[in-house]
C-alpha cells in the first residue's frame, strides 16, 4: 500500500510569484518525514503539491515532477482526483462534515469516489478505519451521532479515519495537532507512529519536539531572503538534523535562534 515519493526540480508558483524553488527529495515508504521551517517558507505550499491540492487555488501551478513509485503525478492525462485518492490529506483544523453522522463522515470520501458497497462491506470498512485511527472504542456506541459532537482531538482522528477509509498510499498532514490540547496531541502522535506501518506519512509541524518524536526524516525549509522563494535547505535522518546538521541555518533554527 505504502509508496515512495520522489520529487525532482520542483518549483511552485502562485501566478507570477514563485513560492518554492528547486526542491529535490525522496520519501521512503513506511516512514514519517517532517517538514519544519519558519513561517512563510513554503512548507504547506510544497506539501499540497504532493497531492495536487494546490491546484484548487486559481493560478497556482508547478514545474518539475513528483513521482509515486515512479509514476509522475503531473504526467499527461493523470486525473488529480485519482491522485488525491492515492495521497490523502489531513488539515490543521479538524474539518468533519458538521451535519453528517460519525459513520457517514468516515465513509464520505469513499462515497464521493462512487464506490458502491454492500451494507456489510460498509460496516467493515467503517470499523477498520475507526480502529486504524484509534477512535473505534470511543465512538462505537454513537456512530449515528453527528461528527461535530466529538472533542477536537476525536474530530481530528475522525478526519484521519476518513482519510484511511479510501485506502490511500500516502497520508499528508498539515500541522495536524496545532488546534489540539497536549493529551489529544499525544494521541495523534502515537497514531502517526502506527500509521507508518501501512502508509508513507509526511507531516508539516511548527513543533520541533513533535518532529523529533514522530519522524524518521526531517526536511528544513527556509527563505533566502524576504520576498524570495522558499527552498529546501537540508534533509536527513531526524537524529542527524537535530544533533549534527550540515547547514548553519538548520542549526540556528533548531536551537531557536530564529523563526
Ligand atoms: N493562496 C495563495 N496565494 C498566493 N500566495 C500564497 C497562497 N498561499 C500561500 N502563499 C504564499 O506562499 C508563500 C509560502 O506560504 P506557505 O503557507 O506555504 O508557508 P508555510 O511555510 O507553510 O507557512 P506557515 O508555517 O506560516 O504555515 C508565502 O509567501 C505565502 O504568502
UniProtKB/TrEMBL annotation:
Keyword terms of this UniProt record: ATP-binding, Nucleotide-binding, Translocase, Transport
tRNA processing listed as a keyword: no
InterPro entries in the cross-refs: AAA+_ATPase (IPR003593), ABC_transporter-like_ATP-bd (IPR003439), ABC_transporter-like_CS (IPR017871), P-loop_NTPase (IPR027417), PstB-like (IPR005670)
Record bears the keyword Transport: yes
GO MF term set: ATP binding
CDD domains: ABC_PstB_phosphate_transporter
Pfam families according to UniProt: ABC_tran
Annotated ABC transporter domain residues: 5-248
PANTHER family the UniProt entry points to: ABC TRANSPORTER I FAMILY MEMBER 17
Protein name from the UniProt record: Phosphate transport system ATP-binding protein
Native source species: Microlunatus capsulatus
Lineage per the UniProt record: Bacteria, Bacillati, Actinomycetota, Actinomycetes, Propionibacteriales
